[in-house]
Amino acid sequence: MIHKNIAKKILNGLGYDIYKRNLKIPHELSNDEQRQLLVLLSTIDKVQYGSGEQYLHGWLNIDLKIKNDFLQNPYKLAIDLTSPHPFKNDTFSFGYSEDFIEHLFQYDQILFLTEVYRTFKKGGVLRLSFPGLEGVLNRHYIDNTYKTAEIAKKDAYTNWGHLHLFTVEELTMVCKHLGFSKVEKKLYNQSAYGPLMNRELRLTQSDLNTFIEITK
User: Fold this and answer.
1) CB atoms within 10 A of CB 60
2) Alpha carbons 166 and 144: distance in angstroms, whole number
3) How confident is the model at residue 123, as a pLDDT?
């Protein structure tokens, strides 16, 4: 049997980068937590996915790494967003996510968007901000040499755990297939909807990220 450190060296020598994904599986909501979640969702209809430390007041903030103490802080919830979401159909009017979706494989991105479609109200809008393939090519692939591509692989993908970067056209195709009515490319911090205005916090990524609003 090959020792894992030897195997890692062999794979690194072949150009593969090995990193560990630390995933915390959230506990199932208790009956009390489920009841409190239903009460909360009767008063708010805005959700932030992959919130990290970016807490939005008056929104339900979801992140896999949040410490799940739902009875103490009902506005923060730890769930796996690639699993069925614990919300009823037609729950949310607005959603936001910054630098989350690129950390999922493509099939999990589609699972996530499938649940967004189910749990959003008709006319509900999800705003996504993520490193798009267009921006990554312009920033990191400055020429067509192998050395540049090798560096870009680390700087744009493996160093950050990025698994799949959507293009605008690809994301539009997926969303239309799932049933969404409209997919619009937007500018940094610009939206026609008040709850989605000035949400981006990373100015250094304004030329890297793609900003999309998806309407059910």
Assistant:
1) 23
2) 21
3) 98
pLDDT of 18 reads: 43
Q: What is the C-alpha separation between 210 and 187, in angstroms, rounded?
A: 8
Contact status, residue 51 vs residue 92, Cβ threshold 8 Å: no
Domain 4-215 is of which CATH architecture? 3-Layer(aba) Sandwich (3.40)
Task: Retrieve residue 213's tokens.
Answer: 């609003």
Supply 46's token pair. Answer: 């805005």
- Of 39, 98, 32, the C-alpha closest to 63 is 98
Residues of the chain short of pLDDT 50, as ranges, are: 1-2, 4, 7, 10-11, 14-26
Cα–Cα distance for residue pair 100/98, rounded to 1 Å: 6
Hey, what are 197's tokens? 């205005």
pLDDT digits (tens, 9 = 90+) for 40-94: 888 899 999 999 888 899 999 999 877 666 667 778 888 899 999 989 999 999 9
Residue 7 CA: distances (Å) to CA of 3, 4, 18, 96: 6, 5, 10, 40
Query: pTM for this one?
Result: 0.84
Asked if residue 86 lies in contact with residue 38, where contact means CB atoms within 8 angstroms, the answer is no
CA 108, chain centre distance (Å): 10
Q: Where are the domains of the chain?
A: 4-215
